[in-house]
Design brief:
Blueprint lengths: L4 H8 L1 E4 L5 E4 L2 E4 L5 H10 L9 E4 L16 H17 L2 E3 L9 H7 L8 E4 L13 E4 L2 H10 L1 E4 L3 E8 L8 H12 L7 E6 L1 H4 L3 H9 L10 E2 L6 E3 L7 E3 L13 H14 L14 E4 L7 H12 L11 E4 L4 H9 L2 H7 L3 E2 L20 E4 L14 E4 L2 H10 L5 H8 L1
Parallel strand pairs: 3-4, 3-6, 4-5, 6-7, 9-10, 9-11, 14-15, 14-17, 15-16, 17-18
Antiparallel strand pairs: 1-2, 2-8, 12-13
Helix pairs in contact: 2-5, 6-8, 10-13
Amino acid sequence: MSRTLFAKVWDAHIVEQLPEGPALLYVDLHLVHEVTSPQAFEGLRRAGRQVRRPALTVATVDHNVPTGERRAPITDPIAARQLDALAANAAEFGLELFDLESPQQGIVHVIGPELGLTQPGMVIVCGDSHTATHGAFGALALGIGTSEVEHVLATQCLVCARPATMEAHVTGSLADGVTAKDLILALIGRIGTAGATGHVIEYTGTAIRALSMEERMTVCNMSIEGGARAGLDASGVEPQVTWGTSPGMVTPVTGRVPSPGDFPTEAERRAVARALEYMGLAPGTSLEGLPVDRVFLGSCTNARIEDLRAAARVVRGDGRRHVAPGVRAMVVPGSQQVKAQAEREGLDRVFLEAGFEWRNSGCSMCLGMNADMLQSGERCASTSNRNFEGRQGRGGRTHLMSPPMAAAAALAGRIVDIRSWAPAAS
């Protein structure tokens, strides 16, 4: 009987099947960053333990790093303490660290594949929920908590219950103006944010096979936000925009904000009403034409070189495009290597000449770190992965979309349909 890829990887990494149900899995690669690791290292120190396999643990700073001038002192005291702690812990326990001075520094889920650390058939863990990104390479990639980070550091193993598997079969091909980000948002919108709870998703079908590796990373990155229980025809997917406070609250850009009364259960109606109040939107509002204050091009979802190229093509246009008055737009590459590649291609000049800010790598506004955050009431077109209340700054209102859609929103000063807007402006 044939086995899924998940089953093959899982079975190959079982150290011991525990009698109470979970398995003890061997971990091939442990990725560490500054936010979820300090307590784990302190736990090792108190117990007098060392890191079991230092060569299989790689650290980077990303979540809380400033993305502006790197030679200046870090003004955020929490960020400074976290970065200093990771540097000290990496030195004490003999770990490789990509710090702010390293040309390989970047978002952990960008540099793993970029540096060749991520490989097919691996079990990869990281104290970050979007570790699923590495699944694009045929790895079993799991986000873990701080206590589990300590356990993996000490033993190079993880205690884990075997999840169920789920197939997302995507046929057809993506239409012009539609991206992998739109595909995964449409999938989450169909199934909901709890659709894949307890499951590992395997993506199949002609539409998935046609995606580049970076596009597959985008799909896997956002798998943590939902899932799929049924097939989908990619040719029917339009550019997507979220209207609420979860990735599942999404509609095609041509759609309108729903009413609480459109939903079947009282719990759903309450959640929608709360989301609309937070987002400052009324039922029936058209998303196309909605004004924006900020634009964020970045995150582990959409800050790789292909994403920046796609956004730059929109910005380049006829050479006279510029960020709309009153809009602040920033581009934050996913790694310093992505930044360097973009600069070699002249993408930085495209963005800068159009009025975008060109930053250093980091998680940045994806989770509202340091100065890269929204002010209360500001509306943002964002290429990140989560639009939760306060995610990009207390009171900030986030609309998730693809890089071309976000770039177009920056230039237009409002949410636009990239399919009809781009040809008219080029």
